[in-house]
Specification:
Structural class of chain B: mainly alpha
CATH superfamily of the largest domain in chain A: MetI-like
Radius of gyration of chain A: 24 Å
Strand content of chain A: under 5%
Number of strands of chain B: 2
Distance between the termini of chain B: 53 Å
Number of domains of chain B: 2
Number of helices of chain A: 14
Largest sheet of chain A: none
Helix content of chain A: over 70%
Order of helices and strands of chain A: HHHHHHHHHHHHHH
Structural class of chain A: mainly alpha
Largest interface: A-B, 117 and 112 residues
Number of strands of chain A: 0
Largest sheet of chain B: 2 strands, antiparallel
CATH architecture of the largest domain in chain B: Orthogonal Bundle
Oligomer: heterodimer
Shape of chain A: globular
Order of helices and strands of chain B: HHHEEHHHHHHHHHHHH
Strand order of the largest sheet of chain B: 1-2
CATH superfamily of the largest domain in chain B: MetI-like
CATH architecture of the largest domain in chain A: Orthogonal Bundle
Number of helices of chain B: 15
Radius of gyration of chain B: 25 Å
CATH topology of the largest domain in chain A: MetI-like fold
Helix content of chain B: over 70%
Chain lengths: 287, 312
Amino acid sequence: MLKWFVRVTKRMQRGFDLFVIGGYFVSIIYATLIILPVYFVLVSAFKNNSQIILTPLALPPALDFSKFIQAQNSVHLLRAGLISAGITCGAELLTLLLAFPAAYAVARIQTRLSTLVETIFSLGFLIPGLAILMPIYMMTAKAGLLYHPIALVILYPAFNLPLAMILLSGFMRKLPRELEESAVMDGGNVLQIIVYIFFPLCSPGILTVLVLNFIGIWNEYLFALILMDSDNRTIQLALALLRANQRSVDFGLIAAGVVISMIPVYIVFVFFQDRIMSGMLAGAIKE
Amino acid sequence: MTIAEKTPRLVKSIFSNAEYGRRNARRRRVTFLFLAAPALVWFLSFMLWPLLNMFYISTTSWNSLNMPKKFIFLDNFIRIFHDPKVAIGLHNTGIYLLAGILGVIPFAFMLGFFLSLRKPGYRILRTIFFSPAMLSIAALAMIFLGLYRPDGMLNSFLISVGLPGLTRVWLGNQSTALGALIAIDIWGGIGFNSVLFFAALANLPEELYEAAMLDGAGYWTIMWKIAFPLMVDFIGLITILQFLGILSGAAYQILLTGGGPGTATFTLGFYLYDQAFLSHRLGYSQALGVMIFLIGIVVIILIRRISSRASN
């Protein structure tokens, strides 16, 4: 920290640039505006209502976990978290199972079909989730899967496929041609090439897909709201319910719920932030 | 490998041929389809098929899942034109879009440019800017509930700096509710998009700036004269993404305001949700969906046109 400070002051002495100073000024104000609400929620989770109202930004007087326990008791947050985790695992696995061979086909097999398939998948970015919410609700009801977590395990991969395809096929295109050629010489077939050669080589790309999918699925609200019921609440539904359940707002309770719900995603963010940023950028550019 | 073992012999023979990837175009196509079909079928069934269904349902009068649909062709669309709530929704959505785009993109671009200069501390700033994108919509709604409620953080801040006259019931007041929801989008949107701009700008060759620096141009000039023209296409893209996100958004209304107070936060997206799941006018809700979808397509084409013309 001190080293950093010395470096900053040295640089500043070297060139007094109004733009850079303005940039820091605005950046720091904006960074504060981002951190404050999050900090506010974090400390509120350990306070009672009057402490939250009277001293919103003060540190909690004690590490009081009673709001977490209360949140758990009122909407079964942990159960909801487990359901979300289960749905996430299932949907991740299915996404990969579907996207990996398809991405291989698009990236490595030269036919005119591959542009067509890519175009079809890129349409996914144009379809508003809200617009297909109702038709999907009907489909789910017809299939008898309404209020069953399996419905989300089936649906989420469909939403995630376009991005997964872009990232995986982009990754595979960079691998050298000779990979397949030598495998074919040795008598390997396509499935063997995919499973034994491409799957291990693509593990960085796979990891990016898994991480981005995880964030998307864990945070998804709208489809879970429509397709699940009180027995199969996902973590996001439980969180929203913390507010709906009470007459007067006990914000400490809600804050505890927010903190619990965002812990897994923030852990992933800490470890994989570069991956997340570059993955989201690739998704945006390819759209 | 079990998958290979389970593959029928006929299909298997297609792959075990050493000629794969060389000559036989038809064989390649079959292989391609075999690998891509599952994903394609999945995507078509759960994305495109529901979309087609939306068009179909929009031509029916249908008021409950248990009741039969009645084909009424374009009547729902004619109704849209006479529906005062559509006018209100369009108005609010228009404000939302305008503020959500103008409030985000210029700032995101400038902050992104500043980050791309890689001044000391840019990494930590980038992490902070990006972090709101990790929050779910439900978490965002709950966080801002804590800020906006009558005895929330925003009001107590205003009181503590001696401005008690400015305190409001932010989400319960007709004149502030829409702005309060838009502010949630702007709050996180600037940061997220600034990191996208940063990443896009980081791909530009450094010599571009150096040449201009030698000519004595400052960063401000470089930002607008060099970086901006090169980023026009990307700005168009970010605008499209921002536009689509707002146009078909309804989650904050569902979680916080219910479209109210009055009709203050009543947007097209929320109207669609309301008709489909609260008022059970399924046919009409899908007609609204078709309208939203078409608006989206038209605006995408428009923005593409503008940005490609501007970048030439």
